[in-house]
Amino acid sequence: MTGYITHFVDGKPWEHGATRQGEVHDPATGQVAALVDFASAAEVGTVVAAADRAARAWRDASLAKRTAVLFAFRQLIHERRDELAAAITAEHGKVLSDAAGEVQRGLEVVEFACGIPSAQRGFFSENVSTEVDSYSIRQPLGVVAVITPFNFPAMVPLWFAPIAIACGNAVVLKPSEKDPSAAVLLASWFAEAGLPDGVFNVVHGDKEAVDALLTHPQVKAVSFVGSTPIARYVYETGTAHGKRVQALGGAKNHMVVLPDADLDLAADAAVNAGFGSAGERCMAISVVVAVDPVGDELVGKIAQRVAGIRTGDGRRGCDMGPLVTKVHRDKVASYVDAGERAGAKLVVDGRTVLPDADGSGFFLGPTLFDQVTPQMSIYTDEIFGPVLSVVRAGSYEEALALVNGNPYGNGTAIFTNDGGAARRFQHEVEVGMIGVNVPIPVPMAYYSFGGWKASLFGDTHAHGAEGVHFFTRGKVVTSRWLDPSHGGLNLGFPTQH
Ligand code: NAD
């Protein structure tokens, strides 16, 4: 039976249908699981108007009221984490344990947002001048749009929405049209947690809906996560329409393995970070840089581990699930063809894998290439699939030059037991998030997540203190309580005395 997914607006499911719809697949079986409504520009306008009405009241809700809602929302996600994980696996395809990990990382941002009374505090300075005080306050922006990718259908919306709401804004979330159900679940749980109608809305769709949000005058800020070309477009269009924009883009994350590293640990890390979620993570490792002389031994250890990966339906206890769509699966497979043609050494070929699944899911097994060079498309492009490339480097300097020469700068890792080398790397590398013997260095909710270069447009990272900053704007008040001694004219520029 084919399901039906629609928008969630003003505290309830949308009742007006749509003129256009998209198909949502179960990637493990290849079946169409549901149809999802696509909003027109006019419908987005209706949603933004509802959010704008809600934002005007919500900005005046006390911190106590806001945090009460967030604590209740946190409890609902906590109790229903399995339901949310199952919804993610059904539409994204990642294995259930991985989906549960995504829910956990999203939950941590909700918990951070529960502490908003501390995080949104301003400063107060007494007697900046005689009997004059100054203080700063941070206020919400109004309606903010959150536009998210397919690969973390719960976690990425949760990077932004809880903090935006905690700060007193109303949110219009446009999730990926490929796996939209997690967003709708979150919306209904926000409503159940007592969030006033219209403060959190979900509108589904494609470019038309995104463009409507980017140009709508009542949308004050846009948080976007997705591929680099769209991130650049969203940043340019949103800022041209006067909005504050943070647009997180794609990645090509390198893991540097120095000769003194523990190669068993490095091989485990490369496999986990390369093939977890079928490589569909913006923090996945897609390039291992093996510094001489570790290459042969390291590739052997990685290949041995890859051979043990079970690919199949994420509900069957497999290690790795399918790709999100058939189109994406075929695109990733075409990169494997291209790598082979370009002369990279194909150590493990994922095209021949027999998945543990029924039907015709979008599977591609893990693929390992060695002797990859920076000219090959498997090196230059973000593949976003289970394809791991090993590049050989003669020295630390050569390895660093590769990482810094890459247009992306999302994440990177170094594997070494030399503290001095690790410290030098963290100082010299031009990347936003760095792991030292940690392959996927995703910051905790109370730090901020974001890359450099083509991995982020705008200057504000997601969640943590930067998230609070992004969803608020500052005021500074200078105040004096007058008594009769303050009289007299003085047209000079005010200075302290
Ligand atoms: P995508 O860019 O195709 O889509 C992201 C969002 O933009 C979706 O909501 C989509 O509907 C919308 N969109 C797509 N095409 C559009 C267009 N032409 N105009 C306007 N809107 C459009 O990305 P995706 O395939 O869903 O996600 C994978 C990408 O996201 C990868 O590149 C990955 O690296 C990146 N990503 C980055 C981060 C990060 O933190 N930097 C995190 C997760 C994913």
From TrEMBL:
InterPro entries: Ald_DH/histidinol_DH, Ald_DH_C, Ald_DH_CS_CYS, Ald_DH_N, Aldehyde_DH_dom, MeMal-semiAld_DH. It comes from the Bacteria. Coiled coil: none annotated. GO terms for molecular function: methylmalonate-semialdehyde dehydrogenase (acylating, NAD) activity. One of its GO terms (biological process) is L-valine catabolic process. Residues 14-477 form the Aldehyde dehydrogenase domain. It holds the Pfam family Aldedh. Its EC number is 1.2.1.27. Keywords: NAD, Oxidoreductase. It comes from Catellatospora methionotrophica. This is methylmalonate-semialdehyde dehydrogenase (CoA acylating).
